[in-house]
Amino acid sequence: MMARTFAGVPEQVPAARAWTLKCLPAGCPRTADVALVTSELITNAVLHSLSGAPGGAFTVRVEVTAAAVEVSVIDQGPRPVPVRREAGASGWGLADIVARLADAYEATTGPAGRTAWCRLDWSSTAEVTR
């Protein structure tokens, strides 16, 4: 498993996504899906958790197996007052994007923060090399 912590600012979303994609094996058949769900999980952490507060951070963990990739984003827990979405704000939302693309998804909240985890499977016949 590989893990890296990033500052909880919107400018780190592309850097965290790029790092996640570098963790994938050559020929990964779901690279585009991994990029999209990772962006959504990270953006959710920055916008809707204490990770997005001044000095906040989030951690991305990636675990690659022969049949799938698991991506986890660990944030610093929910904000005391949820951030309201501005009228006309864009975005499909966590549930729509991740639930539709991932083969498994779970979010848990504990004393150390919240973990949003998803798994994207690929066919055992796909050509994936390390």
From TrEMBL:
<dbReference type="InterPro" id="IPR036890">
    <property type="entry name" value="HATPase_C_sf"/>
</dbReference>
<keyword id="KW-0723">Serine/threonine-protein kinase</keyword>
<dbReference type="GO" id="GO:0004674">
    <property type="term" value="F:protein serine/threonine kinase activity"/>
</dbReference>
<dbReference type="InterPro" id="IPR050267">
    <property type="entry name" value="Anti-sigma-factor_SerPK"/>
</dbReference>
<keyword id="KW-0418">Kinase</keyword>
<dbReference type="Pfam" id="PF13581">
    <property type="entry name" value="HATPase_c_2"/>
</dbReference>
<dbReference type="InterPro" id="IPR003594">
    <property type="entry name" value="HATPase_dom"/>
</dbReference>
<keyword id="KW-0808">Transferase</keyword>
<protein>
    <recommendedName>
        <fullName>Histidine kinase/HSP90-like ATPase domain-containing protein</fullName>
    </recommendedName>
</protein>
<feature type="domain" description="Histidine kinase/HSP90-like ATPase">
    <location>
        <begin position="10"/>
        <end position="117"/>
    </location>
</feature>
